[in-house]
Automatic annotation (TrEMBL):
The lineage of its organism: Bacteria, Bacillati, Bacillota, Bacilli, Lactobacillales. Coiled coil: none annotated. It holds the Pfam family SBP_bac_5. GO terms for cellular component: ATP-binding cassette (ABC) transporter complex; periplasmic space. Keywords: Signal. PROSITE patterns: PROKAR_LIPOPROTEIN (PS51257). Residues 1-21 form the signal peptide. InterPro entries: Peptide/Ni-bd, SBP_5, SBP_5_dom. This is Oligopeptide-binding protein OppA. It comes from the Bacteria. GO terms for biological process: peptide transport. GO terms for molecular function: peptide transmembrane transporter activity. Residues 112-510 form the Solute-binding protein family domain.
Length: 596
C-alpha cells in the first residue's frame, strides 16, 4: 500500500460550476462525470519480429511527475508509488497471480493455506537468487515483518491486521525480540516459512492483502543496519540488490534509473538489454512523446493531454480500470506513538462532520472530471474502485454541488457569519489551512477552484504554506504523528490487489494521515475478514456498508478515479496491463532501434 500523486487531475481552469442532476443510468453517469466514457485494450503487441539487434538497444520509459522520486528501493519502506515505479524492473512479487489477483503456483514462492491449522506455508523457488548471486532464503521472507513491526521502524505499513500473526503485537509493542508466529522449519537459510495466525482471513488468498507481506528483503545485505536507519542507508539507497529480472546499473537520485538484465533471475530471462526510467514533468507529456523520447509511461498517462496523444500514429493507448484515486482528506486527530494507534479529537478544527460535509457540498467535482479529464476519470462515490466488482457499492451517494445545503449544514453546526467569514461555534476565528500539491499550472488551478468555492460559503481557507507544496514536502507533514500545519489536504492512495482497506483507514495504520478512528469503522473493517467473511455474501455486505459509512463521515472523500493507462510506442512487443502478466518486464521486446 502506498500513497502517491496522480497526474490525471491536470488541466483545470477557474470556472463557475453548475449543479449536477441526480443520475440513474450508465449514460447519464457518463454525462455527469460519474463514469469513464473511454475504453481501451489491455495489451499491445507489435506482430513484427524482434531481433537481438533491436533488443540490444534501450527501452525508454517515462515517469511523469512534478517531483523527484525519494530514492527508497525497499518496498517495505516505500511511502509513494513513484519509487515503486522507477525501481520496478528489479522488483519481483513473492507470488504469481491469475487475472483476479488470486495467488497461484509458479512464482518466486508458492503458498499453501491451511484453514484448519490457520497457517500459511511459503515455499521459495529453489532457483531464486538476488542480483549478487546469493540465494533467496527464508529469512528474506521473514525479515520484512521484522521491519514493518519494529517499534522504531520508519515503515508506514503496519496495521492492526498484522496482529493476526501470532506474536506480532508483542513484537510491535517491544515486548518480544522475535515474532513467535513466524517459523522457518528448515532454518533461516532454508526455503520454507510458516506463518501462524490467530485469525484466518479470506483475503489471504489474494496478493497485496493486509495480513501477509508480498515482497522480500535481502537480509544478509542489510542485516547490519539498524531498522530505524534502514531507509537512509547506502544498502537501500546507493548499493541495493534486487531479485527481479533486472539489476540497477546506474541512478541519478530523484531523476532517473538505468537497468541491465539480472543473470541470476529465477524466472523468464529479460530480452531487452537496457532500460532507462526518467522523471519527466507532466506538462511535457505530449511533447516528449511527439519527439519519440519514450516508449511508454510507467506512471500512467496524463488525462488532460489524451486528445493530443491519441492523434499520435506511432503510439497505442493501453489501459484497464484503475484502483488508485485522489481524495480530499481532513485532519481530525493524531497518532499516539506509545499506543501505536490513531486518536480522533472532537476539538480539532475539522472535527465537526457537518463542517467537512459542507466543504464537499460546495464543490462540483463531477463537472470538473467531465470537462477536463476527457472521459478517462470520474468522480467516484467510494474509495473502492468498480474494478472490485463484487465489493464495490454502486449505491453509496456522492457529494455533488449544493451550496444551499452546505450553508445549512454550517448554520446548523454553529459556524455563524461574522463579517466576511464564518467563525467557530465558540465564536473564535476560523482559518482552515489547505495542503495542496504542486503540479502543472492546470492542476494548481483546481486547488484554486476549491478555495474559490469554500470562500463562497464563508470559510476562510488558505494555502497551508502560502502556496501549493511539493509532494514530498506535503507528505512529510502529513505522515507526522501529530501536526497542526494542514487541516484539509489533497492526497492519493494506490489500493492493493485485494480491496481490504485497513492499511489506509485502520485505527493503527500509519497511512491513516487524517487519523480517522471510530469504533464502527474498526468493526466494519474487521468484519471484512472475520470468520464469517469466508461466506462471500456476508463479506460483500460488510464492504458495502463500510463504503457508505466512510463517505458519510467525510474524513476522506474521493474526488478522482481514473483508467490506468499509458501510450505504448508501436515498436514495443509484448506490453500487457493484465494482472496475470507475471513476467511484465521479461516479456517486453523491441522491433526497431528507437521509438518510432
Amino acid at each position: 500500500m502506498k500513497v502517491y500523486k496522480k497526474m490525471v487531475v491536470a488541466g483545470l481552469t477557474m470556472f463557475s460550476a453548475i449543479a449536477l442532476a441526480a443520475c440513474s443510468n450508465d449514460n447519464s453517469d457518463v454525462k455527469s462525470g460519474f463514469k469513464p466514457s473511454v475504453k481501451m485494450a489491455d495489451s499491445y503487441n507489435n506482430t513484427s519480429k524482434s531481433s537481438s539487434t533491436y533488443n540490444n538497444g534501450t527501452l525508454k520509459v517515462a515517469e511523469y511527475n512534478s517531483a523527484p522520486f525519494a530514492g527508497i528501493t525497499s518496498e517495505t519502506l516505500q511511502n509513494n508509488a513513484e519509487d515503486g515505479d522507477v525501481y520496478s524492473p528489479g522488483m519481483v512479487k513473492l507470488f504469481n497471480v491469475d487475472n483476479n489477483n488470486k495467488i497461484i503456483d509458479g512464482g518466486l514462492a508458492d503458498l499453501k493455506l491451511d484453514k484448519k491449522s490457520m497457517t500459511a506455508t511459503i515455499t521459495i523457488n529453489s532457483k531464486a537468487k538476488w542480483s549478487n548471486g546469493s540465494k533467496v532464503i527464508a529469512r528474506d521472507v521473514e525479515y520484512p515483518y521484522e521491519i514493518i513491526g519494529a517499534p522504531d521502524s520508519p515503515s508506514q505499513q503496519y496495521t492492526e491486521d498484522m496482529n493476526a500473526i501470532k506474536g506480532m503485537a508483542e513484537y510491535h509493542a517491544g515486548k518480544a525480540k522475535t515474532i513467535s508466529g513466524i517459523t522457518m522449519p528448515k532454518g533461516e537459510k532454508g526455503n520454507v516459512v510458516v506463518i501462524h495466525y490467530s485469525k484466518f482471513a479470506p483475503s489471504l488468498q489474494y496478493i497485496g492483502n493486509s495480513y501477509m507481506w508480498s515482497s522480500i528483503e535481502p537480509y544478509e545485505h542489510i542485516k547490519n543496519v539498524p531498522i530505524s536507519k534502514l531507509a537512509s542507508s547506502s544498502e537501500v539507497r546507493k548499493n541495493p540488490i534486487f531479485a527481479g529480472p533486472y539489476k540497477l546499473s546506474k541512478q541519478v537520485t530523484g531523476e532517473s534509473t538505468s537497468w541491465v538484465p539480472n543473470k541470476y533471475y529465477y524466472g523468464k530471462k529479460a530480452q531487452i538489454k537496457h532500460i532507462t526510467i526518467q522523471v519527466v514533468n507532466p506538462s511535457n507529456f505530449t511533447s516528449s512523446l511527439k519527439a519519440k523520447q519514450y516508449d511508454f509511461a510507467q506512471s500512467g498517462g496524463v488525462n488532460t493531454q489524451y486528445p493530443q496523444v491519441k492523434q499520435l500514429k506511432d503510439y497505442k493507448e493501453v489501459g484497464t480500470m484503475g484502483t488508485s484515486y485522489d481524495l480530499l482528506g481532513f485532519n481530525v486527530g493524531h497518532f499516539d506513538s506509545k499506543k501505536q494507534e490513531n486518536v480522533m479529537d472532537s476539538n480539532m478544527k475539522m472535527g465537526n462532520v457537518k463542517l467537512r460535509q459542507a466543504m464537499m457540498y460546495a464543490l462540483d467535482i463531477g463537472a470538473l472530471r467531465k470537462k477536463f479529464d476527457n472521459g478517462l476519470s470520474w468522480l467516484p462515490n467510494s474509495v473502492i474502485s468498480p474494478y472490485y466488482k463484487k465489493y464495490y457499492n454502486s449505491k453509496t451517494p456522492r457529494y455533488t454541488l449544493n451550496i444551499s445545503k452546505a450553508n445549512k449544514l454550517l448554520d446548523e453546526a454553529g459556524y455563524k457569519k461574522k463579517g466576511k467569514w464564518r467563525v467557530q461555534p465558540n465564536g473564535k476565528p476560523l482559518v482552515i489551512n489547505f495542503g495542496a500539491q504542486t503540479g502543472t499550472s492546470a492542476s494548481e488551478a483546481q486547488s484554486s477552484y476549491y478555495l474559490q468555492q469554500w470562500h463562497k460559503i464563508g470559510l476562510n481557507v488558505q494555502y497551508a504554506s502560502g502556496r501549493p507544496m511539493e509532494m514530498n514536502k506535503l507528505y512529510s507533514i502529513l505522515l507526522k504523528p501529530k501536526q497542526d500545519q494542514v487541516d484539509v489536504f489533497e492526497a492519493g492512495f494506490s489500493t492493493g490487489s485485494e480491496p481490504t482497506q485497513t492499511s489506509f483507514y485502520g485505527a493503527s495504520a500509519g497511512f491513516n494521515i487524517g487519523h480517522f478512528a471510530t469504533a464502527k469503522n474498526t468493526e466494519l473493517l474487521n468484519n471484512m475478514n472475520n470468520s464469517k467473511s469466508w461466506n462471500d455474501e456476508y463479506r460483500q455486505k460488510q464492504f458495502k456498508e463500510w463504503q457508505t459509512y466512510l463517505q458519510e463521515q467525510a474524513v476522506y472523500v474521493p474526488v478522482s478515479m481514473s483508467l490506468s493507462w499509458t501510450p505504448v510506442n508501436t515498436r514495443v512487443k509484448g506490453y500487457s496491463a493484465r494482472n496475470d502478466d507475471n513476467e511484465f518486464w521479461s516479456n517486453l521486446q523491441l522491433t526497431s532501434s528507437n521509438p518510432e
